[in-house]
Amino acid sequence: VTLYVLEGAPQGRIYQVYATDPENAELKYSLLPAPVPFLVLENGDIFSTKVFDYEKDQHCYFLNITVTDPGGLNLTKTVNINIININDERPYFTTKQRIYRIKEEQSPGTFVANITAKDPDDEDSPSRLFYSIQSSGRYFSINPSTGVLQVTRRIDRDALPLRLHPNISVIVRVEDSPSGGHASEMEITIFIEDINDNSPECNPSTFRKEANENMTAGTFLLQLRNYCADTDIDPSNNQFNFTGLSGFGSNNFALESTVSGTLVMTGSIDLENPANLGVEVYSLTVRVQDIAYPDYSSNSVIFPDIIHIYIRIKPVNEFFPVFSNLSYEFNVPEITKVGSSIGRVSARDKDWPPSVITYSILAGGGTRDYTNIFWISPTKGDVRILARLDYETTQKHILIVQASDQEKTATASVTVNVLEVNDEEPFCSPNFYSFQIPVSLAVGTNINGFKIECKDRDSDPRSFRYFIDEGNVNNHFTFSPSAGSNTSRLILASRFDYESGLDTNWIYRLRVYITDDNLLSARDKATQLIKTGTVTLKIRVIPNPTTVVATTPSFTVVTKKENLYSDSAWYVPFIITLSSLLLLGLLGYLAFLLVTWLRTHCPPAGKADRMSLIHFTFCLSSQTMTKLNTVFDGEARDPVTGKIYEFNTRSGARRWKKSSDPLQPALGMQVTSSATDDDGQGTDRVQAPTKKEPSEKIKEPTGETKPAALPS
């Protein structure tokens, strides 16, 4: 007989053996002595005496059971009891390692670890377990059957959060059944190791710098390390250096340190040097690369980063401007037109690029009327005249001209020689004369001893010629000498003949011309400038004169003034118009105030008085007389002196009553003055007192009542 007992089953009856006897006798069962955890009763019941554990106890028991009848006959049989294993144990991990290390940037599927476990319930057979990851399944996965842990995605040690925390914790779970079984968990830690997978990068990778051309060797320009970085976290992987300085003009520069990338100048750069002429910008390149050997999964070499550097050489103003000549000399005729160019100065310096030269006049060129009669073009150096030159005043002007390149200056002298030109007219004295001569004056006589004396600022005294151009009818007059002297006398050249009718004019108005061309040849007269002066003579011929009266030269100056409107004075009529309007408005406002005052202070005219004009005319005068002729309409006694005084009930004016005046009772009336009647006589109006004007009580009443008003 074979019995099966589940492990973990409680103690108790598990089976009953049964035997038959031909005599149907009562049988008894017994267990041969043996160290087994079972008990057999006489009725054949088999009981277990313990709870079996398949993993700790025997898996099979053999019970020798004897059955005996009353006669002592027996039979022994063997019962085979097998303990059946059940799933009552948790699987456990057989892998003891808890910490693993892998490098970053491993490709997906890379092996990390093989996690193994066992199930005590599967002691005699291969365990059938199921593996899974409970946490951090972001980077890793596990084979559910074999327990192989592998990489599932990119792992970047240099990116967050691994840059700060490079370890990854993984919870691995093992189960002995896909569902509803026993399970165990284990935490493993995977450290991510950094590799040299990043090349250094520079931001910016292009630099533009400026340097003066006169900088000395060793002058600092740029430190590249301040702009470059390697993102590898491990110090052994983020080291880099700078090499390979090259490019146009790289011989003028050097990397002082390959570690810091300090760029310096090897010497000054002279832009004026023909070898550097026209070169202002140098283009350089520098390589930046890792020191550690690269560790790329896809590349075997590292690609260096290239830095581009553009250095502009700034020109320095090193040289002074230099004039083309140390001094300049210009010969200018004195009649040169104002604004004309009389010459040009030029200066330049050796700086490259060429400096912009500006010109100015520092000194010289002044006259009595002008601060400077010369002007120089600031950019071109042209010298021009601003006022007319005068040889007779100044024959030579010396100017100090400055050339400037905004920083440095140079000066040169400019001599302007004013060339004399016959530009002055002869001036004669007197230039007007009036006199009388007798009709019988002898030919050849110096008329009244008259002579003219001429001057010319730019001509020799011998250069004058005299001739009468107008008014010399019948050529009675001439000058002697007619040329070659600065003085000449008026001579009567022929007699007057009024009797025959040859002469009819008794008054001669002579216009005398004086030219300064006497010393010129006929050829020069056609080419050179000739100036002419004039003198006017008035000669009266007196028939049968008794006395010749010499007149004193005189002239009358007539000054004419005109008021002309100027466009620039547009504001004058505007201001005058505006002022007139304001004045007119003010006068109107004052008139309005006057009318308002008259209506307020003058009482209306009576019914009989219909002439409003007369009423308003005499209103002021009547009020004035009311003030002057005060009516004392009441009397009272002074309590101190006992004297009687009169008073006006309206104004309160008082006066002592004269002893000759009778005592007047206080009337309950008010007397006022009114305007005159139509016949010119003044009238009084008696008005009853109003509530606002109560009358005074009379302390000493009298027997009669009479009005106290006096005509005004």
UniProtKB/TrEMBL annotation:
GO molecular function, one term: beta-catenin binding
Transmembrane segments: 570-598
Record has Zinc as a keyword: no
Cadherin domain residues: 5-93, 94-202, 203-323, 324-432, 429-555
Biological process annotations from GO: cell migration; homophilic cell adhesion via plasma membrane adhesion molecules
Domain of life: Eukaryota
Location relative to the cell: Membrane
Key words, A-Z: Calcium, Membrane, Repeat, Transmembrane, Transmembrane helix
PROSITE patterns referenced in this protein's UniProt entry, alphabetically: CADHERIN_1, CADHERIN_2
Pfam families: Cadherin
Principal subcellular localization: membrane
Keyword Calcium: yes
GO cellular component assignments: catenin complex
Compositional bias (Basic and acidic residues): 690-703
Region listing for Disordered, in residue ranges: 656-712
Listed name of the protein: CDHR3 protein
Organism: Ceuthmochares aereus
Gene of this entry: Cdhr3
